[in-house]
Amino acid sequence: MNDVIYQTEALIAEDIDAYLEAHQHKTMLRFITCGSVDDGKSTLIGRLLYDSKMIFEDQLASLESESKKVGTQGQEIDFALLVDGLAAEREQGITIDVAYRFFSTEKRKFIVADCPGHEQYTRNMVTGASTADLAVILIDARKGVLVQTRRHSYLCHLLGIRNIVLAVNKMDLVGYDQATYEAIVADYGAFAREIGIAAFTAMPISGFKGDNITGSSRNTPWYTGQPLLAHLETVELDTTRDAARPFRMPVQWVNRPNLDFRGFSGLIATGSVKPGDAVRVLPSGKTSTVKSIVTLGGNLDEASAGQSVTICLDDEIDCSRGNVLALADHPPQSADQFEATIVWMDDDPLHVGRAYWMKLATQTVSVAVQPPKYEINVNTMEHLAAKTLVLNAIGVTEIITDKPVVFEAYADNRTLGGFILIDKVTNRTVGAGMLHFSLRRAQNVHWQATSIGRAEHARMKNQKPLVLWFTGLSGSGKSTIANEVEKTLNLMNRHTFLLDGDNIRHGLNKDLGFTEADRIENIRRIGEVAKLMADAGLIVLTAFISPFRAERQIVRDMLPQGEFVEVFVDTPLAVAEERDVKGLYKKARAGELKNFTGIDSPYEAPESPDIVVNTVAMTPAEAAEFIIRNIMPLK
Amino acid sequence: MTRPPTHLERLEAESIHIMREVVAEAQNPVMLYSVGKDSAVMLHLAKKAFFPSPPPFPLLHVDTTWKFRDMYALREKAAKDAGMELLVYQNPEAQERGINPFDHGPLHTDMWKTEGLKQALDKYGFDTAFGGARRDEEKSRAKERIFSFRTASHGWDPKNQRPELWNLYNARKAAKESIRVFPISNWTQLDIWQYIHLEGIEIVPLYFSARRPTVERDGMLLMVDDERFRLESGEVPVERSIRFRTLGCYPLTGAVESEAATLPEIIQEMLLTTTSERQGRTIDKDEGGAGMEVKKQQGYF
């Protein structure tokens, strides 16, 4: 079993230079192991590390003592203890995060992503699968294809892993029975075809006993395929495939040490590039020629997928971070509406209509996610109706970006098709997605260039457009104060308009209720209307509870810097409830009104409002005067 | 290039990509520099990532005043060669109270390194700090993200780390929050040595075997690097042929007896030895098996 290892050791001892020469030409394979605790996943990884001599004596000593203390294998070594890292996990006996392990053989270096298998850790598995060339799907030979096997296979397929190994483990516990093995493989094969897995490699193993791991096992003479390690050493790498595709390099950084040098730095995603090649900068579409490929070690004659380089062009064309350099004759497209599969990764569910940041390669844009077309049951692959996506849910939906994004379908290009979603307020990574294709709609809707723009409108009115956005609890005095402010502005000959519940909820938004999703859509529409009015040169006042920070932030982002003025009408809940001008608090307390802000729906106070008025200390007229003083000079 | 990239080429490309992402997205990045072999590789990668520009961030050495003299010498030279600003920070409180490895045990690391690092990051307002930690070093590191998010008080919450997919890193954060970035996460100890060998990177001579004055104490071979070393009664420094597999504060760093005087010999010795790298350091052994995890939650790198 350990022949390979002993040969290596002899080489190290006798001729270190020859060993180093061989080692430096090794390639690298990243793979993921999928299975639940009981499938022997950690044991298999521990075994691979052990057999490839990646465990040192001191680690082994502590492993042996720990095996006896907390191990589950009696007096034998419990390899699983090698790889279960965090203290909390050791106590619970489960892996809850993605851990990366390293080992190497004569031909390759390996990085293993060790992921938890339970359904509540779908996001962890998706994370581990995103960088893997290959997946080892573990099955307990005593149990056969389980729900979790289907889930793991689906996730690996979804993340675009083309090399799937079906490792039927614990063969020692079924007496190395060929019929058992073949029944499992046939069962899995039927399922794999169903979900579109074109090919997979099956093998009978025992991680615990070491069968068919580093060498062919005498216990399975009927198995004629390769042992696991030999397969891992020879399978085709994704970088080989990527290198054969057309050239694309997302620009990370413009390197400009002085006026004579301007280079575009990035990691080549696909294809290769040489000096003299015609390239196109996207999304602008401008073309140029590669002058040189610059590295510290000297200029290169050619560079290809997987290399980090700096490219200089013949012409001084516009190109910056977020742009993509591509083969001139075969560029990727750009679009602003897509269909995508999204995996939700945050405790806070997807808010349809809310703006999130989307990071795709080096592009970061603001996006709105549409209601899911359906959610996918990861155990049965059924399509379910869904209004949102919660933690670990996977759904297909449309995404609208605020400006064009250079992309390719995820199936063709992981770099230009994979993206993450970031919450604009908490900055957490809340989702990951894979683009399928762009939607035609966006391509046919072009902005109509108009001759009279917002600057002209503002000049005619002799004022600087503003949106005074009043936010606060129901009954805090938003409408009253906004009304006072508008009256004063009118006396000053300013052109204004006040948007409030009466003129919006009864017309434009009469189809909306008070659920969280409707509240978000309500504010989005009001924001759009306020923006149009500001474009027309008006000073717009809005008086809505607008309870969520994220939505107020969306409106702020729609407008030029300085035109959105957030006015926080700060009234404690107790005071507003005591005033209860419209009798709404009483109804809400009685349970007659649902989703009432402050009672059974949250109000997120502004963190850094532009203006705060305290209605306990100020009268509405004083508050209005204070606001006017703060927004002067209005030109 | 028709052949597929080697594992070192892929690791190098990944590290460079990570460094460029930080420079493109962070407001005020810094590279932590400890003068060890991992720092040497990091510095070399930074030069490659931004060539022909010098790396657009300073180096920060959180000093304990107890490093080997050879380390201080290389520190100055390496920064100068790279054309980078070198910032050295020493915790004034540790200075004032005379905290040292002989009298203060674990407090020495806590005050000079853990507290010193927090103070230095706060002082200069660095929002993103490159560190040279690797996932193969220790069990709790295997789960560390490449972009490791820290709270305003520099705390690390293993349950509150961001998912990291593909090579997309989320560098967004609120004011006062910070991110530690580990560009060589996926390198192993062997990769580091092989890369130093292939690229001809200058490292501290202490990694190579030479005759040096030593004493044996508690099963460790310690080097008497300067006159501050307190000899216990009966201890007489003995010249031995030694080298170091890892470098830190000299009174806390165990040497190994060795004849390995070239990089291939070092690699050969490493591959044939049977004890893991961090074993020469005392830090992992505190608090039972979870030593490093506890230190990280307190803000240790």
Task: Give short descriptive properties of this protein.
heterodimer; A: 635 residues; alpha/beta; Rossmann fold; Elongation Factor Tu (Ef-tu), domain 3; seven-stranded antiparallel beta sheet; six-stranded mixed beta sheet; globular; disordered N terminus; B: 301 residues; 2 domains; four-stranded antiparallel beta sheet; 9 helices; 34% helix; 14% strand
**Form type of chain A:** globular
The oligomerization state is heterodimer
- Broad structural category of chain B: alpha/beta
Low-confidence stretches of chain A: 1-6, 442-447
According to CATH, the homologous superfamily of the largest domain in chain A is P-loop containing nucleotide triphosphate hydrolases
Task: Indicate the CATH topology of the largest domain in chain B.
Answer: Rossmann fold
- In CATH, what is the class of the largest domain in chain A? Alpha Beta
| CA-CA gap between termini of chain B | 38 Å
Largest interface: A-B, 84 and 66 residues
Average pLDDT of chain B, to the nearest integer? 87
Helical residues, percent of chain B? 25-40%
Mean pLDDT of chain A: 86
The CATH class of the largest domain in chain B: Alpha Beta
Count of β-strands of chain B: 10
Explain what you see.
- The complex is a heterodimer of chains A (about 625) and B (about 300).
- Chain A is about 30% helix and about 25% strand.
- With about 625 residues, chain A is α/β, with parallel strands linked by helices.
- Chain A folds into four domains: about 230 residues, 3-Layer(aba) Sandwich (Rossmann fold); about 90 residues, Translation factors (Elongation Factor Tu (Ef-tu), domain 3, Beta Barrel), CATH 2.40.30.10; about 110 residues, Translation factors (Elongation Factor Tu (Ef-tu), domain 3), CATH 2.40.30; about 180 residues, Rossmann fold (3-Layer(aba) Sandwich), CATH 3.40.50.
- In chain A, α1 packs across α2 and α17 packs parallel to α18.
- The N and C termini of chain A lie far apart (about 80 Å).
- Chain B is an alpha/beta fold and about 300 residues long.
- Chain B folds into two domains: about 190 residues, Rossmann fold (3-Layer(aba) Sandwich); about 80 residues, no CATH class.
- Chain B has nine helices and ten strands.
- The longest helix of chain B has 19 residues.
- Classes of the chains: A alpha/beta (about 625), B alpha/beta (about 300).
- The interface between A and B is large, with 84 and 66 residues.
